Amino acid sequence: GDHHFACTLSSVLVRRIRRTMGEEGLMELLAGSGSKRTVAYLDDLTNWISYDEALALFAAAAEITGDPQIARRVGEETIAQHAGTPVATLMRSLGSPDEIYRQITQAGSKFTTASVLEAIEVAPGRAVIREAAAPGFERTIPHCDWAKGLMSQPTCLFGLPPATVEETTCQARGDDACLYQVTWDAGLAAKTADPAEHLVVLEA
């Protein structure tokens, strides 16, 4: 009943709060969210937490940091913090940002079961991704913010700058689904596809 968000989410949040606010900040986070988990549990990538737990952690983090965009920042930091994990390795093995976005349904299931993702259109340098709440769930603004941060990161696996993500419709604001327009530098991506260049990127 609590297999809704992988602890890749909570782990990034825990590490960010520890880095910026120390152990005292972590205790505030747990108290503010009402979480009964240990910090060690939340920092273990093999664990999962419930939908309500994830949203409570985001709400508490926004409160104690004064940062309403904390969920997006957690999404943006996910790849950087977990670059050597099996999920990151699996995504990189797909060979290009285009292919990650094309297989977004499978990739998204590694992070959450509370929503369903679908690639509407994918071309070099551009992807249109649809995301909607899975049956029994609702979309919230922090959920959307986290998704935007996360969707900016596949390009970083290939040594490129983060992709630009714009949400053109939003289920949390009353639309049928969230629609994300994702863009990146196709020319630069093609350059890193060269095997020699790819080795340089991976070493970096």
Furnish the topology, listing elements before pairings:
Elements: E1 5-6, H1 8-33, H2 39-42, E2 48-49, H3 51-65, H4 70-81, H5 86-93, H6 97-102, H7 104-108, E3 115-123, E4 126-133, H8 141-151, E5 164-169, E6 178-183, H9 186-192, H10 195-203
Helix pairs in contact: 1-3, 1-4, 4-8
Describe the structure.
A hairpin with a 2-residue loop joins strand 3 and strand 4 (126-133). The strands form two sheets. A four-stranded antiparallel beta sheet has the order 3-4-6-5. It has a two-stranded antiparallel ribbon with strand order 1-2. The chain has helices at residues 8-33, 39-42, 51-65, 70-81, 86-93, 97-102, 104-108, 141-151, 186-192, 195-203, and strands at residues 5-6, 48-49, 115-123, 126-133, 164-169, 178-183. 50% of the residues lie in helices and 16% in strands. It is of the alpha+beta class and 204 residues long. The radius of gyration is 17 Å and the shape is globular. The chain has ten helices and six strands, in the order βααβαααααββαββαα.
What is the compact description of this entry?
The chain is α+β, with helices and mostly antiparallel strands. Helices cover 50% and strands 16% of the residues. It has 10 helices and 6 strands; from the N terminus they run βααβαααααββαββαα.
Highlighted features:
204 residues; alpha+beta; 4-stranded antiparallel beta sheet; two-stranded antiparallel sheet; 10 helices
Main sheet overview: 4 strands, antiparallel
- For the record, give the distance between the C-alpha atoms at the N and C termini, rounded to a whole number: 40 Å
Counting DSSP H or I runs of 4 or more residues, the number of helices is 10
Tell me the fraction of residues in β-strands, as a range. 15-25%
H-E order: EHHEHHHHHEEHEEHH
Strand order of the largest sheet: 3-4-6-5
Please report the total strand number as a whole number. Answer: 6
What overall form do the CA principal axes indicate? Answer: globular
Rg, please? 17 Å
Estimated helix fraction = 40-55%
- What are the segments in which pLDDT stays under 50 over at least 5 consecutive residues? none
Mean pLDDT: 92
Structural class: alpha+beta
